[in-house]
Amino acid sequence: MSLRPKKSAAATVTFRDVTKLYGKDTVAVDNISLTVEAGTLVTLLGPSGCGKTTTLRMIAGLEGVNKGNIFIDDEDITNMPASERDVSMVFQSYALFPHKTVIENVAYGLHYSGLIKSAIPVKAKEGLSLVGLEHLAERYPSELSGGQQQRVAVARALVLEPQVLLFDEPLSNLDAKLRRSVREEIRELQQKLGLTVVYVTHDQEEALAVSDKIIVMNKGKIAQIGSPHELYEKPTDLFVANFIGESNILDCMITSVTDKTVEVSVGGKIFNIPAQHIKKGPAKLAIRPEHISFHNAQKKDGFSGSILSATYVGAKTEYQVETKAGKLFVMVASTERLRDVNTKINLGLSPDKMLLFND
Amino acid sequence: MISALTGHYHRNPTVMLWLMVGLFSSILLPWYGIEDGFFDLEWIIDGYPLDSDFAPLFFLLGQGEKLWLTPLIMPFFFAFFALTLPQRSSAFSWALIIGGGLGLIWMCGQGLSIGIRGWQIASLQELFGPLDERQFGMGYGAILYFASCLFLFSTGLAEQRGTMGDKFIIGMICFVVMLVGIFVFYPIIKLIILAFIDEQNAYSLSLFWEKISDSRIWSLGCVFAERRCGVAWNTVFMATIVGFLTTTLGLVFALLVTRTNLRYRRIFRAISIIPLITPPFVIGLAIILLFGLSGVVSTTISDIFGLTPTRWVYGLPGIVIAQTLAYTPIAFLVLIGVVESVSPSLEEAGLTLRANPSQVFQTVSLPLIRPGLANAFLLGFIESMADFGNPLVLGGNYDVLSTEIFFAIVGAQYDQGRAAVLALVLLSFTLAAFYIQRFWLGRKSYTTITGKGDSGYNMKLPPLLSRTVIFVGSSWAFFTIVIYSIIVYGSFVEMWGLDNSLTFKHYITAFSVSIEENGIQWTGSAWNSFSTTFMIAAIAAPLTAAIGLVTAYLLTRHNFRGKNAFEFGTMLSFAIPGTVIGVSYILAFNVPPIEITGTGIILIVSFVFRNMPVGVRSGVAAMSQIDKSLDESSLTLGAGSFHTFTKIVLPLLRPAILAALVFSFVRSMTAISAVIFLVSAEYDMATSYIIGRVENNDYGLAIAYSTTLIFLMLLVIILLQIMVGKTVTNRRQAGTETQGGLNVT
User: Fold this and answer.
1) Among the listed ranges B4-18, B42-56, B407-421, which one has the minimum average pLDDT value?
2) Most CB contacts within 10 A, which of B105, B206, B360, B370?
3) Does any domain span residue B203?
4) What is the pLDDT at residue A70?
5) Is A149 an interface residue toward B (CB < 8 Å)?
């Protein structure tokens, strides 16, 4: 297959101190800097209104930049019109042209890329075969299922062999079953072709599953950049700890800090946990629900509490437990015995899984 | 030089293109307008390029003539200079802005101050002394030169704005602004100036005050004494009654069609639309045939009751009846949209909260419709004020502003100043109504279409109301049918009221054709105006659709400074009555720099800018149905905004384009108010020809001609329905599933 974009096509995207305002004083993106390495899939993740889609649209040239510069490789593209950028985008709504057939949709961009005319149909066909839809070339978009439309949109963007490929929440219009397989296909294509992909989603599970690197955004700023593993295990602030996965956030007091350990008092108990970057004084403690376990009532080393509610959700059971430190959310494998509401229980918290944040 | 230029061509094709157009127009094309007509080509062999009547700009200057045009060379230097600068540099854009701007300003300045008789502004004459030379209106050269300056200027502006500065978009914005400025605002400004000028050509506020406070305009004699009221109050009074009646009947029809179980209610929809395609004064004619001195109803009643027929219908009653018939469809179309958009779930909520149907109607449905009612009233008010044909045909002694303006210009008084003052009064009334409609009502609408499908059905009317609505609606529909039957029947009657025998005479007089040795001879008296009308309407329609859709595209898809003012400016001409347009066009385009009175062009231009708001409206409505991500994906796929517009937006807009085409075609065929000022012997229009026949009491011919027009228009509309209907169903088949994909956000 000749369509394999040369690895050299994939490019690095760099933001340098970029700010985007809507109107006079609504800050959509606030002075962000980031780098997307060539050939990697980077996800912009955050709640709605955090500026992730605006960031993506600035790469595409669909939004202007108020301050700062955007580079693709070494070229400053800040003021380059969208149609001249070597960037393609897969839209949330797919944006397939309803008056054009599948193959015409895929060929559309090729007409404007300086290709000789006779090469266009060949190239378009190759693009379709890449997503396995050659047999539907003459259909109209409305005659396809949602998943097929999605693939056409991907093929349409891919045939241009862009330096950067953008995805704006590509899975949000698919049903839950399809999502998993489509996201795997996207990841596979990206790795096979060595593409630079910037991917926007608000679904943290999706982000964790597909990304080389995740950029968590909050209120127009970058909260944290890291690999999925880093973000989940070592969130650097409370927002990320809370947004990626679920966490119990408890008030605590740091009583002493040494090179090796931190002593923290929470709910009347003292824990010694491995050293973290933290100052003495009141702080917040985050611990994930799966890192809290049930002990026998006789054991005295954890929190004691009583079960407020128990929700069976299949593989796991979720409990709300009232303790001195506050209400705790606990997730336990359903293979363990189910416990009734109002049962007195002892909770074990593993100190090495606790994360501390200054207020 | 050449190689340097071609080298630059790749760097900025837009600047090169417009620079070339500018040079071409000033080196090769006659600068001034050709007296024999825009399309006449005799000048090529008639002294071109040296004769100063036909000489291009450079030849004029080379021969030392019209030296005030010399600064017009400046833009070329600026554009050449810009081409030597790096693109996207601020100097590059400023060179273009200054160069293009200089050209535009100097063109306007010299054009307005030097005319056929030398200086047109007294103070300039004092300053520079009298001028021996004179100049005529703009010709090919001047027009193209002007366009090239405009687009050089807009390209410069686009370069200033970085990423979002799209040359095509900014060029289009500048182009539309320029057109609206020249053909909507400039004539109105001329009109205002004229109202302040006295006989000695001096500005006089006191004279203006004297003219505008004339008791013939503002007298309230009919209220306080047994005298006649001023023409302004007459007009307001008439328009208020008509607005009220059309709104009521429009609501009745809307409720009848959507909220009753009447079996044949779809027919009402059709019946209520017919008046839209009728030249408005035709209904006036039918009223005369029914209620006039020798009308059917009048003579029947006088036979039965032995009464002498009176002239009661000539005056306010006749105008009101005719206008109510003519403008109810507009209110109906507004109100049916409003009534249908009242969410069924609101009414259902009312019912489940223990209110009975008639309480729900009073407390929920009606209040929700109320802003729509006000809207319909204001539209009827504006239309009635602007109407010219019916008051002319039926007015009798009841003077209204639109006819008074006409008689001030055309009649024995020939008083342009008075016409201007009257036109200003009329314009301020309609603008006030327009302002209220847009800015006050604009914020008061409750009925919004959320796009989330409300399930459920709109409540049917409570029984008593339902019966009233059916009774009133059917009666009015019956009356409409009678009116149209009379029109068709009347066209076959020898001499209405005197000789009621049937004949084809009128059709033969109007549309006879004879075949002779040298081909077909169009001997009928109507053929001349008929073919002119058809041609002018056929040229105006695509232009209207084009400028309307381009404007709609700019309004819905792009953000730019002054967008609200831009929108207001493009919608404004809707509120300018045809008579005011007519007068102001005569004032503005009779003299250089734009000299087009008496040509077909002025008719085309007046149609394009009168009908533009409707083109914009239908374009905006259609375009907001098309998801913006379609445009954006086209852009990211490498197509510029020009290709995005032509390859993506336009094909999806086909139904809207057809609607705009037909609408403007029909309006151009049926319009009378502006036309009557602008026609000439050479370019006579069907409607003004018919009015001429009416004034000569030649009703038979007038009605036969009108009937032909109505059927022609019906044919056009039916053809359109078939074409659009197909497109729509195709899109629906093709579009249902996409819709889900396209609109979910």
Assistant:
1) B4-18
2) B360
3) no
4) 95
5) yes
CA separation (Å) from A271 to A242, A252, A353, B11, B269? 22, 11, 12, 69, 80
Together in a domain, B240 and B141: no
- B477 and B509 co-located in one domain: no
What is the C-alpha separation between A351 and A274, in angstroms, rounded?
Answer: 8
Residues B515 and B473 in one domain: no
Question: CA angle B287-B290-B294, nearest 5°?
Answer: 115
Q: Is B409:B427 a contact under the CB 8 Å cutoff?
A: no
pLDDT tens sequence across A203-261: 888 999 999 999 999 999 999 999 999 999 889 888 998 888 888 998 889 988 888 88
Domain boundary among B439, B463, B490: B490
φ/ψ (deg, to 5) at B228: -85, 150
Q: Which is nearest to B611 in space by CA: B576, B646, B582?
A: B576
Q: Please give the Cα distance from B47 to B58 (Å, whole number).
A: 15
Q: A344: domain range?
A: 246-358
Q: Residue A97 and residue B634: Cβ atoms within 8 Å?
A: yes
User: Phi, psi (5° rounding) for residue B183?
Assistant: -100, -5
Q: Given A81, A140, A146, which is nearest B741 (Cβ)? A: A146
Please name the member of B736, B738, B745 whose beta carbon is closest to the beta carbon of A92.
B745
Return the CATH number at A193: 3.40.50.300
Q: What share of chain A is helix, strand, coil (3-state, %, to 5)?
A: 30, 35, 35
For chain A, how far is it from start to end, CA to CA, in angstroms?
Answer: 56
Contact flag A82-B163 (C-beta cutoff 8 Å): yes
The count of structural domains within chain A is 2
C-alpha to C-alpha distances, B589 to A144, A221, B147, B426, B584, nearest whole angstrom: 57, 59, 19, 21, 8
Residue B409: CATH number of its domain: 1.10.3720.10
Residue contact A83–B162, C-beta within 8 A: no
Which residue range is the domain that position B392 belongs to? 216-490
CB contact under 8 A, B637 and A108: yes
Query: How far from A119 is each of A159, A162, B227, B647, CA to CA, in Å?
Result: 12, 17, 85, 20
Measured in angstroms, the CA of A207 and the nearest CA of chain B are apart by 19
Question: Which pLDDT score, from 0 to 100, does residue B455 have?
Answer: 52
Q: Looking at the predicted structure, is the pLDDT value of residue B422 above 70?
A: yes
| Number of domains forming the structure of chain B | 3
DSSP strand pairing (A213-218 vs A221-226): antiparallel
Contact B632 A82 (CB under 8 A): yes
Tell if the CB–CB gap between B636 and A156 is shorter than 8 Å.
Answer: no
Q: What is the pLDDT of residue A300?
A: 58
- For B266-305, the pLDDT digits (tens) are 787 777 778 878 887 888 888 988 888 778 888 888 888 8
Amino acid at A345: I
Interface of B with A (CB under 8 A): 88, 162-164, 166, 627, 629-630, 632-641, 643, 647-648, 651-652, 731, 733-738, 740-745
State residue A64 phi and psi, 5-degree precision.
-80, 165
Is residue B95 a part of any domain in this protein?
yes
A101 interfacial to chain B (CB closer than 8 Å): no
- Chain B residues in contact with A89 (beta carbon < 8 A): 632-633, 636
In a domain, B624, yes or no: yes
Q: Which residues of A touch B86 (CB under 8 A)?
A: none
A265 shares a domain with A165: no
Q: Does A82 touch chain B (CB under 8 A)?
A: yes
Q: Are B365 and B284 in contact (CB under 8 A)?
A: no
* Whether residue A95 is found in the same domain as residue A210: yes
Written as one string, the DSSP assignment of B110-158 is HHHHEETTEESSHHHHHHH---S-----B-HHHHHHHHHHHHHHHHHHH
B735/A98 CB distance under 8 A: yes
